[in-house]
Amino acid sequence: MKHERGEPSPEPVAGSWELEGGSGRPLSRRAFLNVTAGAGAYVALAPQTTMPALPVPPFEALRPGWFDTPMRWAQLTLVENDPGQFDPQFWLDYFRRIKADAACLSAGGIVAYYPTEVPLHHRSSSLGSSDPFGTLVAGCRALKMHVIARTDPHAARDEVRAAHPDWGTLEFDYGRKEVQNFLIANVPDESVPGVIAELDGIGFSLAVNHVRGRSVGCTGEPHCNFSVTETKQRLGRLIEYLEARFGDAISQLGLQLDGCPHACAQHWIADLGFQGTTARDADGKRVQAYDIFVRGGLGPDAQIGKALFRRVPSEELDAAVAGLIQGWLDGRTGEDESFPVFARRQSDEELGLAAGLEPVKGRVREEAE
To answer: What is the pLDDT of residues 174-233, one digit of tens each?
Structure first.
C-alpha cells in the first residue's frame, strides 16, 4: 500500500487494501489474494540474481503421451461377415464429421480382418482380397487420428485347439486362498467324467460340502480400501472348522461375510451373516472383529438380518458360530427347518446362550402418551 508524500493517510477500510500505484479504490480480500498469489508464483519461477534458476525440463519432456491427447474416441467393431458388406469410407467420413481424433478398430484375435499370414490365425470368411483393417488405418492416419488395434481372444477355433491343446490350459497357483470361481463351458457329455477327474487332481474336487457353494465372502483386504478385516480367507477357515465338526449337517447352510457395511456379499440376508469391524483386546490393542447377523433371508419370508452380536474378535468367531449351529441342530423342529426359521423363533437370550455371547440390547421404543 502507498500514500503520496505530504498527504494524510486515509482511514483504512475494513477488509480492503490498495495496490501500489493503484487507482485509490479499495481492493477486496479475494482480489488481494489473487494478485498476491500471482506475484508469489512469478517470484518463485523468475530467475534470481542471488541464486541460479532451477533447471526447467525441455518442452518436449513435458508433453503428454499420445494416449493423453485424444478428446473424442470412436470404436468400430466388426463381425465375421462384415468384410465385403460394409463401406470403410462411410465410417471414415463419419469419423471426420464427428471430429474424432482416435479410433479403436477390429483387427484380429479369433477372426482376422486383414490378410494375416500367421499360422492358424483365421481370416474372416468374407475377407476375400480385401483388407478392411488396413484400409481403415490408412484413412484414420490421413485424418491424423490415433489408432488402436482391437483383438478379441475370447475363444479359439477347433483347428487351433486340435493343433495346440496346451494353449487352452489354465494354470492356477493353488497355494493361494484367494483363487476365485471359474467356469468351464462347452464340455461334451462324454468328457464330463474326465474333466471332473482332472479338476479333482488339481485340487478342485466337486465332491465337497455344499456349504461352500452357498457361502460367499466379499473381496476384502488387502484389495479393497473399505474393508477392515479379512474376508475370503477368514470365511474359508471358518467353513473348514465347521466342516470338521458338523460334516454334511451344514450342507444347506449359507454363510456370507463382508469386510465393511457396503455389504457386497449381502450379509444382511444370509442364514448367518458377518460384517467386519474392530475391537480392543485386553491390552487396548485394536484387533479384527465381526458383527454376527441372524434371522435374515429371502423368499416368501424375506427379512433383513439383525446384528445380534457385536465386535466378536476373530479368534472367538469359530466357537460362537459353532455354538449357534449346535443349538440349531439340537433344537430344530425337523431336518427341514432352516437356521433362519429356527433363529426367528428363539429369543435373543436363547441365541446368546448358544453362542456363548452377550446379545446386543435393542432400543426400547417409548409409547406415545
So the answer is: 444 444 567 787 888 899 999 899 888 887 888 889 999 899 999 888 788 899 999 999
* CA dihedral of residues 82, 83, 84, 85 (deg, nearest 10): 20
Closest CA to 160 of 112, 204, 102, 90: 112
Predicted pLDDT at 27: 55
The CA angle 312-316-317, to the nearest 5 degrees, is 70
Instruction: Look up residue 296 and give its three cell numbers.
Output: 435374515
DSSP 298-362: -STT-B--EEEEEEEEHHHHHHHHHHHHHHHHHH-SSTT--HHHHHHTS-HHHHHHHHTSPPPPP
pLDDT tens column, 139-158: 999 999 999 998 877 677 88
- Asked if 150 and 105 touch (Cβ cutoff 8 Å), the reply is yes
Q: What domains can be seen in the chain, in order of their start residue? A: 16-45 (no CATH), 71-152 (3.30.420), 210-355 (3.30.413.10)
Q: Are 150 and 170 in contact (CB under 8 A)?
A: no
Q: Which three cell numbers stand for residue 153?
A: 481372444
Number of CB atoms found within 10 A of residue 142's CB: 10
CA 283 to chain CA mean position, Å? 35
Q: Are 274 and 254 in contact (CB under 8 A)?
A: no
221 CB contacts (<8 Å, ≥6 apart)?
Answer: 227, 228, 229, 230, 231, 259
